[in-house]
Input
Amino acid sequence: MKNKSLVSINDYSKEEQLRILDIAQEFEKKPVQTILQDYVIASLFFEPSTRTRLSFESAVNRLGGKVVGFSEASNTSVKKGESLRDTILTVANYSDLIVMRNPVEGSARFASEISPVPVINAGDGANQHPTQTLLDLYSIRKTQGTLDNLHIAMVGDLKYGRTIHSLVIALCNYNTTFHLVSPVELKLPSSVKMHIKERKLTYHQYTEMDEVLPHADILYMTRIQRERFSDPLEYERIKNVYNLHKDMIADTKENFRVLHPLPRVNEIAINVDKSPKAYYFEQALNGVFVRQALMASILGIK
Ligand code: CP
Output
């Protein structure tokens, strides 16, 4: 994986993805090392982030590396009209690896094609979020003991949810049964469903969440994303359509876990947090180890 950009989850084979998860297990045991002490990582966030940006930066800091970059483009020469091309070519002079989040779908692919250093896509609009998928796979494997033959329920914004798109594609490698719960307006796009169909896997679509809960091994909740709606009234109409609360998960399977890429708004009540079946904050922690593994692999250290 040395020098190999990660833009779409499909850029890495199943074997390469599993290798990252295995290396992440090593980092979980020993997250503080000095292996990145000679490296500079650029962190370019053109769109808001808490977990992705800070877990990447935490991952670098704990491995002795340095981070340069920005958390909003308004403080950079983008404000003066500089193109993404010129920004990437410039930042590549200052760093060994670029991590970029950008609201424009396809921007990460473009950056990877022109950049002399590898690029990691930290989310490009509603398209893909492959590093989230790696940490989701890590979290699923850690909680279930396997990735194979699971019933995965995905709830919320399946249309614009980039974490959903990347995760569905990755889970097609593991004989997953998909339970897709969304408002009619936010169903999984056909382009993503095509991956499920190509593998001849089973998927079911629902508008209500209750009936999937007894069958699910994983409940992957997502936020209805205000920023993806062009019509604010449509967002207001469906923003609170799902609300998971403690009583709803009382009769779920023993191995059942609730995941969420976060941030949440109202879709998971606070009273779920104390349940041993709530796993979303541990999931966010796993992002540090997985991102350490990914960067160490791309830089040729692991
Ligand atoms: N999961 C995720 O991408 O969170 P942030 O938007 O806070 O980075």
Remarks:
- Residues 280-298 form the longest helix (19 residues).
